[in-house]
Design brief:
The structure holds two protein chains of two kinds.
Chain A (H helix, E strand, L loop, with lengths): L1 H29 L2 H5 L6 H11 L5 H13 L13 H36 L4 H14 L3 H14 L11 H10 L15 E2 L5 E2 L4 H34 L2 H9 L3 H39 L4 H10 L3 H29 L11
Antiparallel strand pairs in A: 1-2
Helix pairs in contact in A: 1-13, 5-6, 5-9, 5-11, 5-13, 6-9, 7-9, 7-11, 9-11, 11-12, 11-13, 12-13
Chain B lengths: L7 H7 L1 H8 L1 H18 L1 H4 L40 H37 L1 H16 L2 H16 L1 H6 L1 H28 L3 H8 L4 H9 L4 H24 L11 H9 L8 H28 L7
The chains are: A mainly alpha, B mainly alpha.
Membrane topology (chain A): Multi-pass membrane protein
Family (chain A): Belongs to the binding-protein-dependent transport system permease family.
Subcellular location (chain A): Cell membrane
């Protein structure tokens, strides 16, 4: 176990090292800090003197070591646009993204487990087939398109008059397909509660929660089909195993077998895959936040790109890289703990 | 004449592939829809009523006209017009063309990279394998979309808006191809590991063939069916990735729109009630991706290759 631990952690450090080199190379290649610091009136000799003083003429390696040293101490430079430390800007935007991810994860967990289990227990039922069909279509719909459709339906509203209004059923169908709209589709609202530090939360007011609905549903929609398919596949495999057949032979009730014995072993691989997927959700938050103008990390990153705010781009890469590496390593370690049959030496084939 | 060798066409008609295709309604329907879309995209210049790249044909007075069937529609624009007054049907035809080009181009690139690295990793093993697969693992753990967004962002920041717009097609092919090579490399490696133990490889070694020859002439042909399956699904993924990048403003410019940038440019007008500019291209995108995915599912069932799972 110790060897496994050391191997995983050293690998995580190596990946972080590579990310920091890439991030630094971007900073080195794209940004000229001098242009941001001094005006046009400064002469070439003075510029050269400042360059020398700032150490911009040092070899790549020396500059990288300085960058890495500062980064370890939590200094990733100042954002050009916000004129304050890049990490501070990120800390301000992080809570919005976290709340979005938490909301979406809750939706995914509470929908995918029952649907996946149902589809595994009754694979032939029309409802299972319906869910599987919907999830095939769902995988083909990009997250930003789901978001746009949701905005049209529930924020702007749709009036339907396809059916003859003078008949009772026609009016009923028209009413059925007509949506009210009215749900907010822009930002987080004004009614935020200050928790601690930079965390302004929208989880405690009705306005904040209303703003969360559409973004969370959109973000959940992209992962939900994956999880339903995964849980169904795992559960079907578990239901074939000997210990389940033994439990059946013993005469245990179907509910006990399905939900106590089978579900436990189904969730093990699901949790590990889920851990990795939650990291991947960061990529989708960029898209969701763009559609809803959600003031989180993703939108901040895109704005930093349009503004060529290099230190902020670099800081975002480092922070997101860290989030990915930490989640992946933790998931690996937890999996190693719960499932001791995993190869301790890693992936030597 | 009756003893003549069976033609390729006859062999194809006798094959299991054709047999199972004929019996699968979903596969036939998906194939027909895909064929129609590809043909419409290829012959867009002949089919489209207007040329969306030709500024002289655009009249701003025609902007935001709804599709035929709604109040205020102009029959000259069957699907309505966008905010600049371009005919939406023509723009979608040209946009599908751009999306398909990038999708195919990116998959050709990632297949080239994936086959090369997958063969090297699987056949040579040892350190080469360890290093290549570690890189693939790390890249995959970051999700291909994230890698594509970051690379796209860096390219855009370094080339500037105008320059990036001009070479956007090649940039997108490169970005998506490089971001997604691990998918194919893993599949190829898994098949190579299985093939490498077979007798014909030993025979080729005994005959004294060189490593490259064994890799590309002997093993590669036997790994083609899983590559074929995963490449189909990857085309759908590449088209989605392209649309996502374009939607974020890291892809095709509005003057030469793909489906993704059409959706993006229409999204700005959805609040003013012009839903068709964004939702019609969106529907086309979903249908395109869906039929490719359904064909991919069917191919996987038919060929039943040793796909990498996990």
């Amino acid at each position: 176990m110790l060897a496994f631990l050391v191997q995983r952690i050293s690998q995580a450090l190596l990946v972080m090292f590579v990310i920091s080199i890439i991030a630094f190379a971007i900073q080195d290649g794209l940004g000229d800090p001098l242009q941001e610091m001094v005006g046009m009136s400064v002469s070439a000799e003075e510029r050269e003197a400042i360059r020398e003083e700032l150490g911009l003429n040092d070899p790549f390696l020396v500059q990288y070591l300085r960058f890495a040293g500062n980064a370890i101490q939590g200094d990733l430079g100042n954002s050009y646009f916000y004129s304050k430390p890049a990490l501070e800007v990120i800390a301000e935007h992080l809570p919005a993204t976290l709340e979005l991810v938490i909301g979406a994860s809750l939706i995914i967990i509470f929908l995918s487990v029952p649907i996946g289990v149902y589809a595994a227990i009754r694979p032939q039922a029309w409802l299972s087939k319906f869910f599987m069909g919907v999830s095939t279509v769902g995988i083909s719909i990009p997250v930003f398109l789901t978001a746009i459709v949701l905005i049209q339906l529930f924020s702007i509203g749709v009036t339907v008059n396809w059916f003859p209004a003078d008949t009772g059923w026609g009016q009923w169908l028209n009413d059925f397909f007509t949506t009210e709209g009215g749900l907010p589709s822009y930002g987080r609202g004004d009614d935020l509660v200050h928790l601690f530090g930079t965390w302004e939360s929208g989880l405690f007011t009705s306005e904040g929660l209303a703003h969360l609905v559409l973004p969370c549903v959109s973000l959940a929609s992209i992962m939900l089909p994956l999880f339903i398919r995964l849980i169904r596949a795992e559960m079907m495999e578990v239901l074939q195993s000997d210990y389940i057949r033994y439990a059946r032979a013993k005469g245990l009730s179907a509910g006990r077998i399905n939900f106590l014995h089978a579900l436990k072993n189904t969730m093990l691989p699901v949790i590990t895959v889920g851990g990795v997927q939650i990291g991947i959700m960061v990529a989708y938050t960029i898209l969701t936040e763009t559609v809803f103008q959600w003031p989180g990390l993703g939108l901040m990153f895109l704005e930093a790109i349009t503004r060529s705010d290099i230190p902020l781009i670099v800081a975002y890469l480092m922070v997101v890289g860290l989030i990915f590496v930490v989640t992946n390593t933790l998931v690996d370690l937890i999996y190693g703990l719960v499932n001791p049959t995993v190869k301790l030496t890693g992936k030597k084939a | 004449m009756t003893t003549a060798t069976v033609s390729r066409w006859d062999r194809f008609r006798e094959s299991f592939f054709w047999y199972s295709f004929k019996r699968d309604k979903v596969a036939i329907a998906s194939f027909l829809v895909l064929l129609a879309m590809v043909l419409a995209a290829v012959f867009a210049p002949l089919l489209a009523p207007a040329d969306p790249y030709d500024l002289a044909q655009i009249n701003i007075m025609n902007s935001e006209l709804p599709p035929v069937g709604l109040d205020g529609a102009d029959p000259a624009f069957p699907l309505g017009t966008d905010a600049q007054g371009r005919d939406l049907l023509s723009t979608i035809l040209y946009g599908t063309r751009v999306s398909l080009m990038i999708g195919f181009g990116a998959v050709v690139l990632q297949a080239a990279l994936g086959i090369l690295f997958g063969l090297l990793a699987g056949y040579l093993g040892g350190k080469v394998d360890a290093i290549l697969m570690r890189i693939a693992d790390v890249q995959l753990s970051f999700s291909t979309l994230m890698v594509a967004i970051i690379v796209g962002a860096v390219f855009k920041a370094s080339f500037g808006n105008l320059m990036f717009g001009e070479i956007a097609i090649y940039m997108l092919i490169f970005i998506i191809g490089v971001a997604e090579w691990p998918q194919i490399a893993r599949t190829v490696r898994a098949s190579v590991l299985a093939e490498k133990k077979k007798e014909y490889v030993d025979a080729a070694k005994v005959m004294g063939f060189g490593t490259p020859r064994i890799m590309f002439r002997h093993i590669l042909p036997n790994t083609l069916s899983p590559i074929f399956v995963i490449a189909t699904v990857q085309i759908a993924n590449a088209i989605i990735s392209e649309a996502a990048l374009s939607f974020l403003g890291l892809g095709m410019p509005e003057t030469q729109p793909s489906l993704g940038s059409l959706i993006k440019s229409g999204f700005d007008y959805i609040q003013s009630g012009s839903w068709w500019i964004t939702l019609i291209p969106g529907l086309v995108l979903v249908v395109l991706v869906l039929v490719i995915n359904l064909l991919g599912d069917w191919l996987r069932d038919v060929m039943n290759p040793r796909l990498y799972k996990g």
